[in-house]
Amino acid sequence: MFRFDKEQKVFDLGGTTIGGQPGEYPTVLFGSMFYNRHKIVTDEDKGEFDKNAADNLWTAAEEISDTTGNPHCNQIVAETNEAMKKYIDWFVDGYDEPFLIDSSAGDVRAFGVKYATEIGVADRGIHNSINASIHEDEVAAIKESDLTSAIILAFNATEPGVKGKIEILEEGAAGIESGMLEIAEGCGITKPLVDIAAMPLGAGAGANVRAGVAVKARFGLPVGAGYHNSASAWDWMKTFKKEHRDVWPPVDIGNNLIAGIAGADYYLYGPIENATMIAPAAAMIDIMVAENAEELGLTVLDPNHPFKKLI
Description:
The chain is an alpha/beta fold. The chain has helices spanning 51-68, 81-94, 106-118, 136-144, 162-170, 180-186, 207-219, 228-232, 235-243, 248-261, 275-295, 306-309; strands at 10-13, 16-19, 28-33, 41-43, 48-49, 72-77, 99-102, 125-130, 149-153, 191-195, 223-225, 266-271. It has one domain (10-297): TIM Barrel, CATH 3.20.20.20. It is 44% helix and 17% strand. The strands form 3 sheets. The protein has an 8-stranded parallel β-barrel, surrounded by 7 helices. The protein is globular and about 50 Å long. This is Tetrahydromethanopterin S-methyltransferase subunit H. InterPro entries: Dihydropteroate_synth-like_sf (IPR011005), MeTrfase_MtrH/MtxH (IPR023467), MtrH (IPR028342).
């Protein structure tokens, strides 16, 4: 637990604050909805889903966020343009929080940023993500949109360690001539959120936490990741949890908390169903970090911080 010499950027994402020195603001939580095989989705191509179930899931996330003080954002995942439109419409018509525009298909992400601009909610939209495999058409779509925020993925296929992550952000790598941050700036992204690209155990997971510290120290930008991916890709755990299901939640949630102690600003924690588990755990870490921050001359700046609400 520490403070950075580098000035730390703080961004407003449609009313949600993210970034800063460790302890100043609560950790932001991104829960995923409409993901592959999500039970509430009945037709992933057409974007048909159980709206009551979706409302119940998001309302539960809002309620636990109100309790702990950790803001929630929606990671909307769609595989077609039609589905992306329906998911965004459902969310922005009923709720006020920011949302990620996510898909395994670049053209669907491109459609999402265009659509968010078209309906006037670009200030709440966050593109996911600008990465080494992004195509020119998607870059053009972001440039033409009104979005100002995006996840910047620090995944370097040739060097998974901290050095490689910094390299891909600053200079590019593996045939990419520009760094991811330069590409983002060229797209009009003024609120970049760095995803340190959490790696699986045994394949570079040791850099997951240290990379976040390095990025904040070097660039002063908000950092986070899908830390839970390190656990979900752990081959031994895949087998072990089949007979010991109770061991999985603490491992899954715990991956995030390790990074939180080291100053992570946000968690892409996975399925929205885990909202009520992750928020109290995130709040506990936020309180610990805030207590130490005060000893380092920092101040909790958010009146809704868990340190203010739960102590």
